[in-house]
Structure formats: C-alpha cells, structure tokens
C-alpha cells in the first residue's frame, strides 16, 4: 500500500475563508500535501478539480461542500459532502434526505464537528450535530482543528495568545466525540473517522492588533487524514480522485497531527492464517489474529477494543494476538510543548467470528 496525505474541510472566499482555490492549492503543494479537499458552505464550486504543480511537488485539488440549513438558528447539523457533481444544499433542511441523496449519487457524507460548543465571549453559538437518528452517512469528523479552539479559549486575552501561538491549541479529539464514534461503531456499521482542518485563514482585529489567524499553511502542517491507497497519484484526474474517495469510503485511513512530528509511516494491520487486513477492513478469525502497530517514532501506543483500552506500550511497535471478535482501533499520544497530546488515531479493523459474515449492518444507526 501507498500513503497519501490529505487535508480537508477548507474554506475559501466563496464562503467564509480568505483565500482562493489556486492560491490555497499552491500553499498545500509547498506543504508537500498530496491532496486537499475544499468544502465551502452551501456552494459547490464547479470546474476546479485538478493538479497544482509548485516547486516540484504535485498536489491534487478536489472540491466538495459543507452543507447546513441556513434557515435554522443556530445553524447546526453540518455535513461534509464529497465526490458528487450535483448541488445538494437545497436538501439541507432534512439531513436524512440529504444523506440519501449523496449516497444515491455515489458520494460520501461525513458529519462535521459533531460536538462544537458555544464560545460566548465571541458570540459563537453551539453548532453541534443534533440529528443522531440519521442513517447511512459515511463517517464523522472526530478531530476538527478550528472547533477545538472553542474548547481551550477562556478569555479574549487567551484568544490572542492562541492567535500568535496556534501550536498550543491542539490536544486531541473531544472525549464526547470519541464516545459518540465508539457508540456508533458498537451499533454494527462501519463509521469512518476523518480529521478536518476547518481552515479559514481569518483576519483578526483587537484594537491596534491585526493578524491572520491560523493561516492555511499552519493547518496544512497540523491535522491531516492519511490514506492508504493502491498507488500514488497517477496524474489521471478520474483515476486519482476515485482512488482517494474509495479509501475514504472504506476507512483505509488514519488521522495524524503532523505538527509535533510527521505521522507518515504509521501502520495498523491484522494477519490471520490466510489474510492480511488494514484499517477499515474486516478480517475473519481463523485460529487467531495478530494485530500489529508501528509508529514513526517512540510514543504511547494504546490498542482499544470496542472503545476500551486493552494494551499500552511506550515503544514504536505493539503486537497483540487474539481470537476475540470486536472493533479494534489505535490511539497514539506523545509529549509536545510540555503536554501530552494526541498524535495519531487509526480507523478500526473489524475482527469477525468465522460464523458471521461481517460486523457490518448497513443503515442500522
């Protein structure tokens, strides 16, 4: 397998960002990203998918959409929609209808910033996802680089500190979001986890101080989604975009916080007597299954089964042999700037009893 580093959930001047597609893509290329996915609010900008070659690095630009009901106050239930060519914002008032439409068109849908609390000092409302009866979505954004700011800022002075030192913000996904993800997984459906930057590169003014807070290049060095794919980018737009969306759909991916150190090269796999599985896959238990974790540096590795930690090590590798069916995933933490911070979150590998065809029960949420 090959590894592609993708940054998604990006905003431009077509909604509430400050950059244009081509300039953002050049910045992504300078950051050596393989692909970016721009998702402006309630507008699908057509005709911009393609490659940017900058300073010898090629980056694929893809365009999706972040959809929410603009008539609702506050405007909750944000959905990232990827891989379709039809505008779907007109369906925003009915999340189930929206998800069904995207699925019928062969696209992907991810619940954006599932837990997104209010920030009263800046008159920011709670815009968490509320309609948890919806079925059939692809996955959820378990780590949102911009929304996390709302959980650490306690004052306007604190906001100023984080504006100048954004590397102090990220600690990890919210515990409530991880609990929600594990609960969804326990219902039997594959729910793919992604990390989104939610980058806007906004201009801030506080008295005489003006600054672009959290510029695009900062986000591109921070929370990325790493995909495992059959090949690198070929230069064929249809083939490459299809390969990227297929990896997202399967959950052949992990979320890496690349600012403390690159997460490139992380692997979580499973081997049985006759099959090897990667993140996002099912594997049937025949005798036993060997789970293997490798990190690109020493860190605290935790192996979880059905949302509970079952094994921890502080080395670069973890091995666990089991014949116990369940949903296995990995969390990795390391120290950065004097604090223990999240570094890597894998998608699950689903260990299935030999007498069961799959843990997956489509549309049962």
Topology:
Blueprint: E1 2-10, H1 21-30, E2 35-41, E3 50-54, E4 57-67, E5 79-82, H2 95-104, E6 108-111, E7 139-144, H3 149-152, H4 156-164, H5 175-186, E8 192-196, E9 202-206, E10 209-213, H6 216-220, E11 223-229, H7 237-250, E12 253-257, E13 267-271, E14 276-278, E15 282-284, E16 289-294, E17 300-305, E18 308-313, E19 317-322, E20 326-336, E21 339-346, E22 349-352
Parallel strand pairs: 1-2, 2-4, 6-7, 7-8, 15-22
Antiparallel strand pairs: 1-11, 3-4, 4-5, 5-6, 9-10, 11-12, 12-21, 13-14, 13-16, 16-19, 17-18, 17-20, 20-21, 20-22
Report on the structure:
The protein has 365 residues and is α+β, with helices and mostly antiparallel strands. It has two domains: 2-257, Metal-dependent hydrolases (TIM Barrel), CATH 3.20.20; 267-330 and 346-352, Immunoglobulin-like (Sandwich). The protein contains seven helices and 22 strands. The protein is globular, with a radius of gyration of 20 Å.
